[in-house]
Every structure is written in structure tokens, then in C-alpha cells.
Amino acid sequence: MNMVFKALADPTRRKVLQLLRLRPMNAGELSDHFSVSKPTMSAHFAVLREAGLIDAGKQGTTITYRLKLSVLEDALLGFSQAFGIGAGSAAPDAETAPELSKGKTS
Amino acid sequence: MIINRLGYAIALAVFILAAAAGLEYAEGAGMLGAEGARRAMQVLIGLILAAYANLMPKQLGRPRRSAHAEARVQAALRAGGWSMTLAGLFYAGVWALAPLPFADIAGTAAVATALAVTLGYALWSYAACRGAGDAAAGR
Question: Contacts of residue B82 in chain A, CB cutoff 8 Å?
Fold first, then answer.
């Protein structure tokens, strides 16, 4: 559950979840919605995957992500979005993301 | 995976039977009135329903062929999960707090409504997928 809270605390990851609510998307499609580097986005995807909030399926050479939220996690996402949790830390998170991509995902 | 799920289901069934036996014993020993035992069992059933329905949107299954179908399936799972979870919580709450005759009717009505919403949304999603598939095939 701690990993779920950590995953939902970041606005970028919440935005990813909201995009996946519309339909499954591959990494490229999701990355197009953000002005951060691909390794940073990969780190965000890794955090979401480890928390069990998204499902990654490989189709050929592309990885398609699907939303995998329980009702409780969906409600937590709604609450954190409504109260803007972590909204002020968008820039610092982008700075720390390279660390995440080196394996510091816990 | 299937064995795991089967194991959980069997464990849950054993837990429900044990809880029913425990409540029966408590009632027989005079620790709990008949109404209290009945309420406790119904509250337990409501909470189990909510807990199971909570995980419903996570059961994605195999990937579908089109993104449209995948989105529809996910929306149906989400709608079903939410409606059944809320119904389960309402069922537990109403059996915990409301007068018995009202709890009986309101609890059943809530679960029946949630079931109708779940099935209705699933059928509507299926029809929408079929419609989109036919349109794509030019039929």
C-alpha cells in the first residue's frame, strides 16, 4: 500500500493514470503528453508498474500500458487529484527521476 | 495463478462458515441475541462483497485486439467494481445500523441495483464494441 501512496503522490504519474483511463496507450503515446525525457517517463512507468497500478503488455516491439486500479486505488487517485497532493513538487520530481531510472524506485 | 485464486476462495468460504458457526455458538451461549447474530453475519457478507468487488477492475484478462474494445472492457469493469463495492458497503452499513425490516429490503435492493448496473453496463459495452466492429468492417 505504501508503494501505491508513493505512486499516487506524483502529479505526472497521476496524469499518466488519467490518460490510461481513456484507453490503453503505448509508452510513446504517453510520453507525448509530457515535456520530460523518455528515461524519466520510463522511471515513472516503473514506479506505477511496481505499485500494481498499471499493466504492461508487449506487442511486438511496443509496450502497451493498461490501467489496473482497484476501486480503493481509484478513489485514492481521485482524492489526491482533488486535493492536488504533490502538485508543488512537480519540478523536484523531474529532477529526482533520473535517480529513479538508475534503480531507486522503492 | 488459478490455484492461488482457488485457495483464496476456499479460505474465504472456510472463514464464512467459521464465522457463522462462531455466531451460532455465541447465540446459543447467550453472548449474543438472535438479532445481533443475524446483523453480524449480514455485515460480514456486505464487507466481503465490497472487498471482492474492490478488486474487480484489476481483473483485466488477456489484452483485446483493439484499443476501443480494451477501453470498453476497462470501463465496464470499473463501473461494475464501483457499483458492487458501494452496494457492499451500503449493505454492511444498513445491516449494522438500520431497523431489521428496512435493512432487509434496502440491502437487497442496493445489491440488486448494483448487479443491474454492472450487467447493464457490460451489455451496453459489448453492444458498443460489436457496433464499432461492424462499422469498421463496413457492415
Answer: 71, 74
| Phi, psi torsion values for B8, nearest 5 degrees | -60, -45
**Counting beta carbons within 10 angstroms of the beta carbon of residue A12, is it exposed (0 to 12), middle (13 to 18) or buried (19 or more)?**
buried
A56, closest residue in chain B (CA to CA)? B63
| Torsion-angle region of A10 (φ positive above 0: left; ψ -120 to 50: alpha; else: beta) | beta
Q: What is the pTM of this model?
A: 0.80
CB contact under 8 A, B54 and A66: no
ipTM of the complex: 0.80
Mutate to test the interface with A, among B1, B58, B64, B70 (most CBs of A within 10 A): B58
For B103-130, the pLDDT digits (tens) are 999 999 999 999 999 999 999 988 888 7
